[in-house]
Here is the input.
Amino acid sequence: MKRKHRNVKKILSLALISFLFLFNHETLISYFYSFQIDWTIILFILSLLLAITFFIKQSSLFFDLKTIMIYFLFIISILLTMIVSKDFSGGYFFILLLIFTSLFFNSFIDKIFFYKTFLIFTLIISCFSIISRLVFIINPTFIQNNFIVVTNSENVSFYNLFFSFLVDYVSYFRVFGIYREPGVFAFFLIIALVFNLFLFTLKTQLLISLIIITAIIMTGSTPGYLSLLLVILAYFYNEIFLVKRIKLFYFLLFPIIGFFTFIYLSEVIFDAISKLSFENSSLIIRLFSIYSNFQVGIINPFNGVGITKGLGVLYRDYLSENLFNYSFTSTDNTSTHGAMFASFGSLFTFLFLILNLKFVISFSKNLIIASLILVSIILSLNSQLYLYSEVTYILFFSSLNHIKKL
Here is the structure.
């Protein structure tokens, strides 16, 4: 009976995680196929129902009092900001929904099962992305004749391969996976690589690393490349100085990837590296996004100025002023921690950074390794805005979970 119960729970867990991956706000699937449905509300309801079912079966709470207090502090922080700023826009309620969804989702889903499924799912997306891009380069008519075209609000057309979306432009080499931006795909690839190198000891670790690193390179994401370098340094430090072993195949892995990328992706890589220049608009906008958020947040450092001002007119005014002497402009907010500080203040941002740290030290308590991985994650989180990302909240709130078996 217990075995049957475990099998049912695994199936339900897999179904819930699959729903999260496919229909979160970062995916093109949820964008193109919304059907006027709020997928987050459905995720919340499913998580709540499964958490209640689990509670009834187990007759015990999974979270301890300390964990509940952390959730409570996040909620209090948001409510205080709403009251102090007299701002009651829908963005607050959506983030509260994300926090409660994280609570119920993580009370039902086994932490290790979630991480392993995350790795497998990202691996599948990577394989589809790499193969479909190569097929599109070699035989574009096959893709053009067999898959439908969807177009976003910026009139960018994609071929929908379900587990991969291809920009309708043969010489555009960057891969999106199923996500709204190559940089978002790169962030989730980095997380999957960390799982593969520091959490699981799979027999196929080399092959999985090869596929994920190749996919990261094919995103053409500069923050993705920098995060990848930090994770690789952390892994080599672990292998050489802590485990005291040198796996020859990992030293052969990178020349192989280097050869592959030189042949097929030299233009993408050179373009990504060129963005590190202070003359590049992408780098300058991202740096000033962080600075502009800080300028807004410092007005009310404890509670922030609220979502409407923090993500709206006040932020745009500061960013416009900072970019005044440049030949380009932007209204985009690309800093997750910065947006949190500007909108909700230091308490909310500090708590979220604590979650980032707890997430990292679950892989290694070594100061150097944890620092390298933490910096790679912070770098990724401040190159795109994940303030409304279901996966991001659930992923980092999962660091509060105890490890339990299905």
The beta strands are 149-151, 157-160, 165-167. Residues 2-112 form one domain. The first strand starts at residue 149 and ends at 151. The two ends are 14 Å apart (CA to CA).
